[in-house]
Amino acid sequence: MGDKFRIGGIDVEWDAEKGVCTWAGAPAVAMWTKTSVAGLLSGFHRMVGTERFKLALHGGGRDSTDGDWALISSKPAFEEGFAALAEVASSAGWGRWEIVSIDAKRKEARLRVHNGWEAVAQGAIEADWGSAYVGGKFAGIFQRHFGVADCWAEQTAFAVRGDAYDEFVVRTSDKSLEDRLDVLFQSDQATKADLAVALERVRKEVEERAAAERELREKLELIARQEEAIRALSTPIIEVWDGVLSLPLFGVVDSQRAAEMMERLLDAITQKAATYAIIDLTGVDVVDTTTADHIGKLVRAAELLGAKCIITGIRPAVAQTMVQIGIDLTKIVTLATLREALRRCMRSTEAGRK
User: Fold this and answer.
1) End position of a domain, from candidates 133, 166, 190
2) How far apart are CA 319 and CA 321, in angstroms?
């Protein structure tokens, strides 16, 4: 069976058989300050160095204030809530916490800790790095109370150095804990642990950049595929019969589009071994000298590869324009419709086979 008692308004219960202890229903652990706690802190200190160790403790204290603030906020006034928290802390062996002053206008507070566990532990191993964890707690609490982004707790008195208490001045700060870690890393006080943190940060940045580059490449590839699909739709080349290709034109034929048409048509003629290429102008409403020149070059290039060209679908307005601007189509076969052109190609193909 478990044992239970009440101290400082908190129910403390433990089950020796299970090895479980709870404070107010939350799991807790009791350690001898001058041996277990001192040994734990000393081990961490040796691994990371004083400055890194102090920053880590300060950050840990700052990040552990959710429950503390919940208790403080449950009271009508901040001072009353802090007094309730101080009573719990005193009952748990954290020392006696005291608010010396609070300047709301300057957003500054002065606090003292009598018989704090960090000072007691350091005294046992003759260490002197300050009570950074409790200082971090005070910073986190007043960060919420002042409603600011960052607070920093500067320790101004040290019990381990012979003072009657640990004293802290908590002020708003324009530097976050992460900023202070960056400064530490850039100084000669950086440790292997700092280097590991920096390397991890660089690794994440490299991974994020690589992911962004992959995403960008994928988008560029998608755009390229879409452009290719659009070009294919704007310049469709259809094999309408064995050895007969059809290239229907639509809209305006500018220099870029003409170059794409020529490249696609010549490739198709080569791949299909085509002997005829029908260029259908049914979808062309307006033609000018430049467009006519593009069509003429297209015809000549196709004939150089051994494919005869037939132009179909010339509209009356287009024919009138061609005459007015002096385009010579006498050397090119022109027919009214694509059907007529296909019939001629089929007859010529059948005659050639006989």
Assistant:
1) 190
2) 5
Per-residue model confidence as pLDDT tens for the chain (354 residues): 468 888 777 788 888 888 888 888 888 888 888 888 888 888 877 777 788 888 888 989 999 999 999 999 999 999 999 999 999 899 888 999 999 999 999 999 999 999 999 999 999 988 888 999 999 999 999 999 999 999 999 999 999 999 999 999 999 998 887 777 777 666 655 555 555 555 666 678 888 888 888 888 888 887 777 666 555 555 678 888 888 898 888 776 666 777 778 888 889 899 988 899 998 888 877 777 777 777 778 888 888 888 898 988 888 877 777 777 766 667 778 888 888 888 888 887 666 655
Asked if residue 204 belongs to a domain, the reply is no
The secondary structure element, H or E, covering residue 210 is helix 192-234
What's the rounded Cα separation, in Å, for the pair 339 and 319?
Answer: 19
Q: Sign of the C-alpha dihedral, residues 336, 339, 344, 348?
A: positive
pTM above 0.70, yes or no: no
- CATH number for the domain spanning 287: value is 3.30.750.24
Q: In whole angstroms, give the CA distance from residue 64 to residue 328.
A: 89
Contacts of 307 (CB under 8 A, 6+ apart): 245, 269, 274, 275, 276, 277
